[in-house]
Specification:
about 260 residues; alpha/beta; TIM Barrel; two-stranded antiparallel ribbon; globular; binds iron/sulfur cluster
């Protein structure tokens, strides 16, 4: 079983972005994935042939023991951890230093080269925090990727954004641009593009609530978990949800494949 296994570590966040798929916010329901379970899932994933891990939330770095958990997980499989980059204090960076040299990337959200555009979507002063964090993460030896979520990104806006990430030492191979997906808070605001399972690559995703088809599956709308992309509530052993996903893949008509290229 090739590919990446996604783990949602938590659903709360210090921000509350306009298009957030999980309606994350400081007081959102946390839906915590037990760190010990995360490590067991990573071991099972490696044994099943998964080739990497994705760690997401919510904001994973709100978890007090995340640096140590990342170190354990990165000892099992290469990983990318998604973050809003607003929590990297000197103390936290020092705790992340052991990750240098491991196959770990921190994927940071940055939606525009213009602070007011980025901050209007995400949070006041977010642009400045992100621009400050990137060189600091790179200085301690971590690979930084940038993810841009955009409803409309014109050629000139994209060129300015790419010039900015290159100036920060992040190459084109580490910049991903994806559309706003009409789920979660984006759906409530009428933002983004509607998606179905057919638009989303099969990427097994485990949360405290179950196993989902894609990291775009376990979204939250009006406080309730979306279950249209739920594969099974059973997450362990991992071979069970993996088999459930394979059955769906095998049941698809030939040629029907993800068309949106969201990740
Ligand atoms: S999009 Fe990310 S940073 Fe923004 S509220 Fe949601 S989880 Fe937090």
């Amino acid at each position: 079983m090739a590919g990446r296994l996604w783990l949602y570590t938590n659903y709360h966040c210090n921000l509350a972005c306009t298009y957030c798929l999980t309606e994350s916010a400081p007081r959102a329901r946390r839906r915590l994935l037990d760190p010990e379970v995360a490590v067991e899932l990573a071991r099972e994933a490696a044994a099943l042939g998964f080739t990497s891990l994705g760690i997401t939330g919510g904001e994973p770095f709100l978890l007090p023991r995340l640096p140590e958990l990342l170190r354990q997980l990165a000892g099992i499989l290469p990983l990318v951890v998604l973050s809003n980059a607003t929590l990297f204090t000197d103390r936290l960076l020092a705790r992340l230093t052991p990750l240098a040299g491991m196959d770990v990337a921190v994927q940071i959200s940055l939606d525009s080269a213009e602070a007011e555009v980025n901050d209007g979507l995400r949070a006041e002063h977010n642009f400045a925090a992100v621009i400050a964090a990137i060189p600091r993460l790179r200085d301690i030896g971590l690979r930084v990727r940038i993810a841009t979520t955009a409803e409309h990104l014109g050629d000139q806006a994209r060129a300015r954004l790419c010039a900015l990430h290159r100036s920060l030492g992040v190459g084109d191979e580490d910049h991903v641009v994806r559309p706003v997906v009409r789920r979660g808070r984006a759906a409530g605001r009428g933002m983004g593009v509607p998606v179905t399972a057919a638009d989303l690559p099969a990427e097994l995703t485990i949360t405290a609530d179950g196993a989902f088809w894609s990291p775009f599956g376990p979204t939250v709308r009006d406080g309730r978990l979306d279950t249209d992309l739920l594969l099974t509530r059973t997450t362990r052993p991992l071979s069970l949800p993996a088999a459930a996903m394979l059955r769906v893949v095998e049941g698809r008509p030939p040629g029907e494949d993800a068309s949106l290229g969201i990740r």
